[in-house]
Amino acid sequence: MKLSTRYTIFVLAALFVTAGITFLSMPTGAQGNAWQIVRAEYGTKNQHNDVTGMVNDLVGRGGVNGRVAVNNQTMGGDPAVGAEKHLRIWARNRRNEEREFDFREGGFIEVATFNVRRDRDDWNDRRDNSGDRDRDDYPGVRIVRAYYGWQGNTVNVTEALRSRMRDGQISFVVTNSAMGGDPAVGADKVLVVIYRYQGRESAAIVREGNTLTIP
């Protein structure tokens, strides 16, 4: 075998090995095998909140530098005061394989691990016809997303909350009638709100029968 032929084979082999290493080191999502979030709970085994919608929204928005912090603020409240809490995410990939992810309070979610499917309305935070409300220096509250219900029985009530805004503020008692119906009959429901105020995104969680006031 000629030297030039050996050199060519060596170069090609090296390229294939390098390509293989690069592929294996790519994030899960880049390999077309990202995990789809099915359910998410935050708290302890006996005291926890369903935060599926909130986690999907935070991950779908890209987090901060590709990560989402796991704490009482980002998860919308403290379901078990004084206890060590965890965020548990149940997910499924394209091969229909299921996996449970566990994140301790104070940790971070790597956004690239998950693939969040969102419709056009989810991507649009009502930038059209919203005027100054889309400016970061807008002094009032902007409702980004809101969910009402319990466990897997939740509904998107974003528009219902936006319609209750008055002079850049919102305050009302959380009831089934105020939310447009009862998505989980017999259960103690919660309202989870992701909002933007003075250029910063925050989250709030209010139980049925209590008052939501922002700011």
Along the chain, the helix and strand elements come as HEEHEEEEHEEHEEEE
β-sheet strand percentage: 25-35%
How many distinct beta strands?
12
The biggest beta sheet is recorded as: 4 strands, antiparallel
Q: What gap, in angstroms, lies between the N and C termini?
A: 78 Å
Estimated radius of gyration: 22 Å
Chart the SSEs and their pairings.
Elements: H1 3-25, E1 36-43, E2 48-50, H2 52-60, E3 67-69, E4 86-92, E5 98-104, E6 108-110, H3 120-123, E7 141-150, E8 153-156, H4 158-162, E9 170-173, E10 190-197, E11 200-207, E12 211-214
Antiparallel strand pairs: 1-2, 1-4, 3-6, 4-5, 7-8, 7-10, 9-12, 10-11
Description of the structure:
It is a single chain. Mean pLDDT is 78; it is low at 1-31 and 119-134. The chain has a four-stranded antiparallel β-sheet. Helix content is 19%, strand content 32%. The protein has helices at residues 3-25, 52-60, 120-123, 158-162; strands spanning 36-43, 48-50, 67-69, 86-92, 98-104, 108-110, 141-150, 153-156, 170-173, 190-197, 200-207, 211-214. It is globular. It has two domains: 34-113, no CATH class; 126-214. It is built from four helices and twelve strands. With 215 residues, the chain is α+β, with helices and mostly antiparallel strands.
